[in-house]
Amino acid sequence: MNRDYSKLQNGSDIRGVALPGDEEVNLGREEAIRLSIAFVRWLSEKHRKDESKIKISVGHDSRLTAQSLKEAVILGLSADGIDVLDCGLASTPAMFMSTLFEEYKCDGAIMITASHLPQNRNGFKYFDNKGGLNKEDITAIIKMAEQIDICDVKEIKAAQKADLMSTYSEYLREKIIKETGGNDMPLRDLKIVVDAGNGAGGFYAENILKPLGADITGSQFLEPDGTFPNHQPNPENKEAMKSIYKAVKDNNADLGLIFDTDVDRSSAVDAKGREINRNAIVAMAAALIAKEHPGTTVVTDSITSDQLTEYLENCLGLRHLRFKRGYKNVINKAKELNEQGIDSQLAIETSGHAAYKENYFLDDGAYLATKIVIKAAQLKKSGVGLDVILGSLEEPKEAIEKRFSIDREDFASYGDFVLEKLTEWVIEEGTASGASLVLPSYEGVRINFDNEKVKGWCLLRKSLHDPKMPLNIEVTKGSCDDILELILVFLKSFDVH
Q1: Of 31, 271, 411, 424, whose CB count within 10 A is highest?
Q2: How far is CA 448 from the centre of its chain?
Q3: Which pTM value belongs to this model?
Q4: Interatomic CA distance for residues 378 and 238, integer angstroms
Q5: Is 80's pLDDT higher than 80?
Q6: Which run of H or E residues covers position 90?
């Protein structure tokens, strides 16, 4: 029984190769069955509930392997005789909501997705009624799964079909109606284009915006297609953002919305063509709650800009805590602050993962889109657009990201060694280059540069899971290359290329 599923763990998710091709499949029928049985056992232990009384919902995005993996997952779940809801094509946030909606009240949920990864990949995201599972929970499930014998697994109980996305869509429609004044058609004066990237997000145009009166002419790639023929379903992708920008301009729209494959991330484009992603989507998400929660702490990932900090703190009157990469890291940090008595209403990554306290700290791209739509509708009545919100947010002159490979088997510990030496270099030799450490830094080494030639910052850190060291650089004066050259000189002494 020499099974090793550890390579399937990607932080708090399961991800693997599910489609035959250039890479060997490591997430197929057997793995799905074992992991599903293990999830039932984990839920039973955590909630002290008999396995036979547990109810779990299962949904998936548009990936080509979704159906076969879903069948395997349901087989594993039903083998224990539990109640299984088959939610079909769904979004990741909606799957979590199946644990809260009164008509479902599931003990757990499984979303079959690999977010924006290539079409040969797939994976699982797990939830209970407290939210997404943490890294240590996934590790425990994997260890259980490796020991499970599935020779005699047979379907005991057929899954029940559930129209979860209709319930979830109604939930968001009601929110829009309530917060725009109670009119049944509150969006009739807005033209909004949606780009679903052929993932699971097409429902937002058809089931939320259109029934509330919005003109969705020009919306694109709403049809689920796991080959992703048009562009990556990823708001961080430049081609994807160019695509929604073009749709907004071509259709003279008030707003454009773009989702990733499983709709836990989103970004936007305003009527003037400004891309509201990365630092700007953080700024927008924060601006939408600044009035109701003055002084609240916004927790972000580590690569946010200095200009964002200035906007959050000086323009909105909020506080900014720059933490670590990883959506679960920022969410858990915000929860921790609240437990300490420090109000934190928003945890958000520049990737578009936005989790509001008011929404169970669930990273939900459709919920963020809904808050943006509500604000757009409110502003439209005053004759202005969303562009007024971010008017004071300055953008860096230039920004780049480089990813260096660590050529060592002990890449994790070696990466720590490189960062330690970089810290020493800044302290001992950085003054001549106008370099200074930014402290505290919760991830990697962040350095400010301020000299006659260049003004900006860089962050060198370890990748969360791979033998890589990403380097982010932003400048307001000079060129990113000025800082890059200094870092490259430093790295010449190490096995990092």
Answers
A1: 31
A2: 28
A3: 0.95
A4: 30
A5: no
A6: none
